[in-house]
Amino acid sequence: MTAKANKTWPEAASTAAKRRGPDLTQDPIGRLLIMLALPAGIGFFFMIAYNLVDTIWANQYPVAGEAANATGAALARSFGPFFLMQAFSIGLMQGTTALVANALGGKDQDRARHIVAQAMIAGVLVGISLFLFAVAFPVPGREGTVLALYYDVLSGGNAEAVRLGLAYIYPIVFLAPVLIVISVFNAILSAKGDFTTFGIVQVVAFFANLILDPILVFGGTPFSLYGLSVDLPNFLPELGVAGLAWATVFTQLAGAAVVMIVALRTGIFEGLKLREFVPFWPLLSQVIGQGVPAAVNMLLIAGGFISIQFFVPEIAKQAGSVLLATMSPAEAGEAAVNGYMNAARIEQLLLLPVIGLELALISIVGNNLGARKEERIWRAYRLALVSALVITLIGMVIQFAGHSLFPSWINRSDETLQVSSGMLSVSAFLLPAFALVFMNSGTLQGMKRPLFAMLINCVRLVAGPFIVYLLVARLAPGNLFAFWIGYGAVAWGCGLFALWYTPGRMKRVISREFATPTA
Question: What residue spans define the domains of the chain?
C-alpha cells in the first residue's frame, strides 16, 4: 500500500500543479464568483466602452451637436444587425459553454472535446449562411439587400440615413463568420473558468479602437473633441462612419486570433481525431438544442433594441411631442433614436457587473451540475442573486443622479439630451429588475435549460414594449415618458416572475439530472 501511495502521490501532485485556473467544483463559491465575474465584467466594460467610443465619434462627425444626429442615428440603427451577428456568436458560446462545463464537471474529457468539434462545425455553417444572407440575398419585388430594406424601414425612407447605415454595416458583415466560429474557442475558456483572457483582449481592443477611430473617421481632415484640436497627415483618407466599422474589423480580428491561440493551449484538443468533425447528430443536436435558444434569446435582445428604435422616433413624431416645438418630424425622429441609444450605452455600463455575474453563474452551475453537487448549485444561485441586487441598487442611485450629466458627454443637442435624460431617469429604477432576469436566466442556462431566457426576453423586449407602444400611441401620443413608464412595468413584471419560477424549476431539473446514471 505504501509503495502504491508513493507512486500515485507525485502523479496527483503533478496534476494539481498543472491545473490552471479555479476548480469550479471545489473552490469556495464566493471566491469563484469574484474570480470569474471580475475579469468577465472588466472585459464587458471595455467591450461596451469600445462601443461607446464609436458612439462618441459618431456624434462628432461631421461636426459636434445637432448636425451629428444623422451619423449618431445611423450608428444606433446599426446596433440591430450588428447585434444580430453577435446573437449567433454569443448563443453558440453560451450553449457550448454549458455543455462543455457539464462534461468537464463529470470528468469526461473525450465528450468535452467532441462537443467542441461539433460546435465548430455548427459555427462554420451558421457563419457562412449569415454572411451570404446579408450580402447576397435579394428582396423580392425591390432592389437591394435585406440590410438596405432594414435601414429604409427604420429611417422612414430617409435615403441619407440608409446610405450612412450601409456604409457602417457592410464592413462589419464580412466579420460575421469569424466572430461566430471564434465563439467556440471563447466557450472553451469560459467552461474552464478562464474569463481573464477575454478581459485582456477587450482592454487591448478598446485602446486600439480609441486610436483607430478618429484616424479612420476624419483622416486628414482637422477635427476637435472637447476643445482639443487635432490635425492628422493629409494622406490619410476620410472614411466617415465607415471608418468606425473598419476599426472594429481590424481590432476584432486581432482579438479573435489571441483567443484561438489561448484556447488551443488549454489541452482540450489533446487526442482530437478528424472524424470528430464529422457531423454526429446525438452531440450536434445537443449543441443546436442549447445554442439555438441562447441565440434566439440574444436575437430577442437585438429585436428589443430594433423595436424600440422604431417606437421611440414614431412617438417623438406624433402630435403632442415636445421635440416638435423646435424640430421637424424627421429631425425629431433622428434625435430620438440617437438619444435613446446614447442612454442605452450608459445603462449597459452600469449593468456590467451583473453581466459578469451571469457568465460566472453559467460556468459554476454547469460544472457542479455535471459533478452532481446540489448544495453548491443552490449556494451559487443565492449568492449571485443577492450580489446582483446589491450592485444594481448602487447602480440605480448612480444612474438617477447622473441622468442629465452622463449623456451630455456624448451629444450636446438639447433635444437629444432630453430623450436620453428622460429614459435614464426611469430606467435607473429598472436595474434591479434586470438583475432578477439575468441571474435566474443564467442559472437555468447553466443547467442546460435555455428556453426560459428566450421566452421571458420575448415578453420583456418585444411583446411587452409593443403593447406599451400601442397604448401610448392611443392614450398619450407623443409622450415618451409614458412609454418608459410602461416599459418599466413590463421589466419588473418579468423580473418578479423569474424570481418566482426559477427555484421550482431548479428542483425539478436537479431531481431529473441526478436520477440519470452517469455515462
Answer: 26-515
